[in-house]
Specification:
The chain is an alpha/beta fold. It has helices at residues 17-27, 34-43, 50-53, 63-71, 90-106, 116-122, 127-142, 160-171, 176-183, 192-201, 203-211, 226-235, 277-287, 296-302, 310-318, 322-334, 339-364, 368-371, 375-380, and strands at residues 5-7, 10-12, 30-31, 57-61, 76-82, 110-114, 151-155, 216-222, 245-249, 253-254, 257-261. It binds tryptophanyl-5'AMP.
Length: 382
């Protein structure tokens, strides 16, 4: 079996429950327990986001300290990001829809970083292509409904002046051997890969640095991004800032099941945000890994396993009405709903979500500037 390897630049091996337990141990993160969930639920007026209640966001680092601060009236901020290497797929939405919910629930500032420089250094794309994806990804992201007054988008090349200034503070405290060990960089790699992590670590204290006051930073991400923030937790105290906190998710599996995360480089492994209703339906029907039985008789008799069924999972992430999700879960599990019917239900939900996103995206085209990172604006809004 393929060896489990999870770094920001490579994910391989089967991502089952066992693999996640190994990663939790290897990376030294904590599981989100009932106590933390009930604290968040209380703050969110009794409603937990489905990605939390269904344990997709399953691990954390010092989330308790962020909640302590919030409960004591001390400000904190959120930080997340995207590497603009291609079109966005629905897997990429997971951390963003969740971050949106966090922003609304806690009413806090949010930095969103687009690491165009990372994608240039790590992949084989031309800068001009990356720039196109950066602009398009920004539109996708802001169409989700972030608060323009409190959301600051850092596109690395554009924001380089400020970012680089602080990134050198970070770089000064990281050795070559740390980057080699944590990111799997080797001697034949380009030297940009050694420096880049400083750029992704910087937003974890940038708001504090610009405002001249120390605030905790909470970072939502899927577990592949953890290496950056493990290193950040070593460095930031040396610069006089808090260690960043994290809230960490599993991967949305690829259409074909758990063996690989959904990837934008394989057309048939992902549903893209720009896919039409017909494409969504076709991909689900043709490729989606099913937790249903092989024959109709068996499905009616024994029912499906919704927990590994791509269509059910995707439907459950997008349907906000928990009652509806529970009903579909029971009916699919008991054999009342068939695999093809489950795919139809999911296709409907996914494509109506994507259609409304496309409409919003069109309207966002002249709003982009409002969201772009501006250090002066951040200092003033202190
Ligand atoms: P990127 O573009 O690879 O991924 C963006 C975010 O989506 C998460 N992710 C997924 N989540 C669920 N299911 C999947 N199949 C899936 N694939 C990716 C990633 O973990 C990430 O949270 N270097 C980063 C960009 C970045 C960033 C950050 C991410 C800069 N600063 C701070 C998180 C937090 C990148 O290339 O992400």
């Amino acid at each position: 079996m393929e060896k489990l390897n999870v770094t920001p630049w490579e994910v391989s091996g089967e991502l089952n429950d066992n693999a996640y337990s190994k990663l939790v141990e290897r990376f030294g993160v904590d599981l989100i327990n009932d106590n933390l969930l009930s604290r968040i639920k209380k703050i969110a007026n009794g409603k937990l986001h489905p990605l939390l209640s269904r344990n997709v966001f399953f691990a954390h680092r010092e989330l308790n300290l962020v909640l302590d601060d919030y409960e004591n009236g001390k400000p904190f901020y959120l930080y997340t990001g995207r590497g603009p290497s291609g079109k966005m797929h629905i897997g990429h939405l997971l951390p963003f829809t969740f971050t949106l919910w966090l922003q609304k629930t806690f009413n806090v500032d949010l930095l969103i970083q687009l690491t165009d420089d990372e994608k240039f250094l790590v992949g084989s794309r031309e800068k001009s292509e990356i720039e196109k994806f950066t602009n398009d990804n920004i539109l996708d992201i802001i169409s989700l409904g972030f608060d323009p007054k409190k959301t600051h988008i850092i596109a690395d090349y554009k924001s380089a002046k400020t970012l680089y200034y602080y990134a050198t503070d970070v770089a000064k405290h990281i050795t070559v051997s740390t980057i080699k060990a944590v990111f799997g960089v080797n001697d034949s790699d380009n030297i940009g890969k050694l420096f880049f992590p400083s750029m992704q670590i910087t937003p974890a204290f940038l708001l504090s640095a610009l405002r001249g006051k120390n605030m905790r930073c909470l970072i939502p991400y899927a577990i592949d991004q953890d290496p950056y923030f493990r290193v950040a937790r070593d460095v930031l105290p040396k610069l006089g800032y808090y260690k960043p906190s994290a809230i960490i998710s599993k991967f949305l599996p690829s259409l074909q099941g758990n063996s690989a995360k959904m990837s934008s480089s394989k057309e048939e492994s992902a549903i893209f945000l720009e896919d039409s209703k017909e494409q969504v339906r076709k991909k689900l029907m043709k490729y989606a890994f099913s937790g249903g039985r092989d024959t109709l008789e068996e499905q009616r008799k024994y029912g499906a396993n919704p927990d590994i069924d791509f269509a059910f999972l995707e439907y459950s992430f997008l349907e906000e009405d928990q009652g509806k999700v529970d009903k579909v879960y029971q009916e699919y599990k008991s054999g009342k709903i068939l695999s093809g019917e489950m795919k139809e239900i999911a296709a409907e939900k996914i494509s109506s979500f994507l259609e409304s996103l496309k409409t919003k995206k069109e309207k966002m085209k002249d709003k982009v500037e409002e969201y772009m990172f501006n250090p002066e604006k951040i200092k003033l809004s202190n």
